[in-house]
Amino acid sequence: MRITEMTVPGAYRVEPEPLSDRRGHFFESVRAGALLGASGWEFTVRQVNYSVSRRNTLRGIHGTKVPPGQAKFVTCVRGSALDIAVDLRVGSPTFGHYDVTLQSPGTGTAVYLPDGVGHAFLALTDDTCMSYLCSQEYVPGTMIDIDALDPELALPWDLKEPPIRSDKDAAAPTLAEAAAAGLLPTWEQCPPRMLAAVPGGL
């Protein structure tokens, strides 16, 4: 697999290398050691989530307060999605910057998002299913919500019609409003790499 850092520091795009034969194909989605070597963070799965969305559904931008934090390994397992990672770390040299990944089961491309990096996606087909491997169990009251249509972020959704959103997502603050209200983690709380990585596993 190929693991490359995004333009949002500490976030990684993971691209498998399928092995094909007459039955179809097989690929390793991720190896713990390879992800640790690339990112510097040990990633242990403590919760697994799935979302299923209609075409033109826009979910996010979602993050988690630190502590407790919640790093994510996100993959599209059915359908297709335009996936965007956004730097939410106040004080980061790339605060508010984003990176885009087109996800579909055919490629197996996934994204690893550390603490402090928000996640959003637009479902490009009906019945789009996203898998989330999470480093921490969800703690009620710790989610960070940012408006995915924040005009200052200007995320490239290329919408042809108003998206389907939850009431909570539609009412979320802009990035500037969330920062002013002290809702966001800081760069110091969420450095892109550990100074000394410890061996461990997914």
UniProtKB/TrEMBL annotation:
This protein's UniProt keywords = Isomerase
Determine if Isomerase is one of this entry's keywords: yes
* InterPro entries for the chain: RmlC-like, RmlC-like_jellyroll, RmlC_Cupin_sf
Instruction: Report the domain of life of the source organism.
Output: Bacteria
Keyword Signal listed? The answer is no
PANTHER family cross-referenced by the UniProt entry: DTDP-6-DEOXY-D-GLUCOSE-3,5 EPIMERASE, THYMIDINE DIPHOSPHO-4-KETO-RHAMNOSE 3,5-EPIMERASE
- What family name appears in the similarity comment? Belongs to the dTDP-4-dehydrorhamnose 3,5-epimerase family.
What's this protein's name? dTDP-4-dehydrorhamnose 3,5-epimerase family protein
